[in-house]
Amino acid sequence: MSPWLVLVKNARKLYEYPKYWAECYGIAPFLPTSRQEMDELGWDSCDIVIVTGDAYVDHPSFGMAIIGRLLEAQGFRVGIIAQPDWSSQKDFEKLGKPNLFFGVAAGNMDSMINRYTADKKPRSDDAYTPGGLSGSRPDRASLVYSQKCKEAFKEVPIILGGIEASLRRIAHYDYWQDKVRQSILIDSAADMVVYGNAERAIVDIAHRLAAGEAVQDITDVRGTAFVRRDTPEGMVEFESNRIDQPGTVDKIISPYVNTQAKPECGAARDKALPESNEQPVEFIKHKNMHRDNTVIRLPSFSEVKSDPVLYAHTCRVLHLETNPGNARALVQKHGIRDLWLNQPPIPLSTDEMDYVFALPFARVPHPSYGKKKIPAYDMIRFSVNIMRGCFGGCTFCSITEHEGRIIQNRSQESIIDEIKDIRDKVPGFTGVISDLGGPTANMYRLACKSREIEAACRKPSCVYPGICQNLDTDHSSLIKLYKEARDLPGIKRIFIASGLRYDLAVESPEYVKELVTHHVGGYLKIAPEHTESGPLSKMMKPGIETFSRFQKLFNKFSKEAGKEQYLIPYFIAAHPGTTDEDMMNLALWLKENGFRADQVQAFYPSPMATATAMYHSGNNPLAKVTYKSDKIKVVKSVKQRRLHKAFLRYHDANNWPLLRDALVSMGRGDLIGNSKTHLIPTYQPAGTGDYQSPRKKNSGQSGKTGRGNFQTQHTGLPPRAKKSAKKRPKRK
Q1: In whole angstroms, what is the distance from residue 409 CA to residue 389 CA?
Q2: Measured over all CA atoms, what is the biggest interatomic distance in the chain, rounded to whole angstroms?
Q3: 419-460 pLDDT tens trace
Q4: How many CA atoms lie within 13 Å of 280's alpha carbon, on the beta-carbon side?
Q5: Which entry of 57, 449, 480, 647 is 20 to 30 Å from 362 by CA?
Q6: How far apart are alpha carbons 143 and 186 in whole angstroms?
């Protein structure tokens, strides 16, 4: 058995820890949020207090509920401080001093993404707040909350977690300040960061703190980041500019390891550092080198802050070290201190996933919110999470960096039991399950055919540039789950709302048939993202031909089921690697295929994503990064971002003046005209721009999409759109 499989087999299960003494208090109906609730439970203090930027909803789709209930199941007394007033210490003191630690998270979303649009404009809403209004959490909430916790109780350890901390665990580009910031651990008052889905790490840390171990001595837990001043004795340290040189620490089992990179690729520091006379192969074959005693030194914060090439190189190295089966520890200097990142956590087994999702969630918001609506809860209260992780590797997405690329599955029995609980216990249930999914809709039980190959692989994606031959794409387990779930008594419909990987779906026509026949409510959202190879290669997304294959299956099975159903494709504007010509060609494809986008998405540079490194540096971390590397096109100006969004909404008359100017400057004035073959017309309806319509009776008609938030398909218009289309006067 390989060392990795031995490690997985010997990993301590979440349910194997001896219970902490406070288990005698039993299960709380809700984790307490006030002293009064603590008194009702008979508690004199909390062992752990979780501070979160979201409203407290006791549901497994909310991070604070999962971590809180899991720690409760370990025997700890856990309190919740949800959306505290950060203008003073009062809210942070209301549950008293925790005996073990504060757990701090910004919430289910990065607080900056939650508060600002891709155009850096403040949002007026917050789906995770009662009433849906913004303003209940600060910018960079993890930093603010941890500092307030330290002010309230200076000696209490602070553990940062959640997606905001996870994606800011090293020096990272901050889109809102347009600069590289330090690790969130350095900027905060916290003692440690737990990254990813942190159940395994947080349980271990809690028990060790309860046993009297000091937080600064806990340095061996996977999935954690902390600060130290020197490299421990016995650790072999080497510079990141050597990790891609010929030779490898582990024997390469599969010829498909890291197919994105050339064998000799590696150093981005060929300008900053002289070539070493040391032979890389001899160095990497150092007799003392092993995954567990090897650490890679990344370029320091001061280096990546001032050098975009080194930043891109660091991003590349980080993503090469994300497979828990072969990742090494990373270290990055911040001033006189070293930020240390241990290897990623060992994924949860199916029985552990079942254990987590079987915890006694109330599945409703805390009663203190009364009748106030929490939009995020309303969206997911009848949904079921069946898996975690994603091996798609889309560069603009941070799922892999947070949850990992190894799929963690629940058992079918566990999922069916949760559906029954929703049916029998959740108020307002009408028999419709809104989603069975997760980060993706159809990666349930998909995995590498070989655990040894999986543990050794460094490919950033299992499905790009094509589906790896080692990937098992059998959808039969998912089909069986769908069928059993929809046959349950009291269940009328089960919809699939999670993002669908259509490149995987086309490998299983039987799955597409099951999906289209029983689980689509008239419209299916799908994300080809673009049509042109340039931007698609930077996104690591399949070509538009794969979308066309899926579209044919979708139409075929919809017709066989006697249903009128429509695809809603989503596209990204202004992604790194996208030119004006790419967006023009996408607009032409949309018009040719009869799609009209009502809402469009502009690229949003989230922390630590590969595409964000492209945006900041102009370099492509998917390949070798050097000072001589070809630069990629990056869209940063407000005007060009507006233009790229306008191409997606070519049918909107308000965009026509901007598009006319752009097409003329691009030498494509031939696309301006009044026939069906032209992209946009020469006339301008009144009230939409600088031009006046020559025919008043047509004013305001151009650019309407009929029904809101849908895109029509060349196979036919929805009934309402057909009706409105009849009223539109024809143009000559």
Answers
A1: 9
A2: 83
A3: 999 999 999 999 999 999 999 999 999 999 999 999 999 999
A4: 18
A5: 480
A6: 10
SS3 at position 181 = strand
* Helical pair 476-486 and 509-518, crossing angle rounded to 10 deg: 20
Q: 476-486 and 412-425 are packed helices; what angle lies between their axes, rounded to 10 degrees?
A: 30
Could you tell me the end-to-end alpha-carbon distance of the chain, in angstroms, rounded to an integer?
A: 74
Q: Hey, what are 278's tokens? A: 């040391």
Alpha carbon distance 433, 496 (integer Å): 9
Closest CA to 66 of 55, 58, 74: 58
Using CA atoms, how far residue 383 sits from 60, 310, 432, in Å, is 10, 43, 9
Yes or no: say if 86 and 144 are a contact pair by the CB < 8 Å rule.
yes
Give the pair of three-digit tokens for residue 372. 């106030």
Residue closest to 187 by CA, chosen among 160, 216, 214, 224: 160
Given a cut of 50, is residue 477 above it in pLDDT?
yes
pLDDT at 693: 46
Q: How many CA atoms lie within 13 A of 465 on its CB side?
A: 9
- What are the pLDDT digits (tens) for 565-617? 999 999 999 999 999 999 999 999 999 999 998 778 999 999 999 999 999 99
In this structure, which amino acid lies at residue 260?
Q
Question: Which two three-digit tokens encode residue 596?
Answer: 């009209």
Residue 373 Cα to chain centre, angstroms: 25
Distance CA 505, CA 510 (A): 9
User: What average pLDDT does range 71-76 have in this prediction?
Assistant: 98
Instruction: Lay out the sheet containing 78-82: strands in order across.
Output: 78-82, 48-52, 101-105, 158-160, 192-194, 224-228, 337-341, 329-334, 294-297, 236-239
Cα angle at 243 between 241 and 247, to 5 degrees?
A: 130
Asked if pLDDT for residue 26 goes beyond 80, the answer is yes
Question: How many helices (DSSP H) and strands (DSSP E) are in the chain?
Answer: 27, 23
Which stretches within 297-411 are classed as H helix?
301-306, 308-320, 350-357, 375-380, 399-403
3-state helix, strand, coil in the chain (%, to 5): 35, 15, 50
Q: What is each CA distance from 422 to 193, 430, 648, in whole angstroms?
A: 34, 10, 39
Give the DSSP letter string of 463-520.
Answer: SSSS--TTEE---HHHHHHHHHHHTSTT--EE---SPP-HHHHTT-HHHHHHHHHHS-
DSSP structure string for 634-647:
---SHHHHHHHHHH
Q: What percent of the chain has pLDDT over 90?
A: 80
Measured CA to CA, the distance from residue 267 to residue 206 in angstroms comes to 40
Q: CB of 621 within 8 A of CB of 319? A: yes
78-82 vs 48-52, strand pairing mode: parallel
Residues 694, 628: Cα–Cα separation, whole Å? 54
Query: What is the four-CA torsion angle of 571, 573, 574, 575, rounded to 10 degrees?
Result: -10
Q: What is the DSSP letter of 447?
A: E
Give the C-alpha separation, 414 to 416, whole Å.
6
Round to whole Å and give the CA distance between 489 and 520. Answer: 20
How many residues belong to the chain? Answer: 732
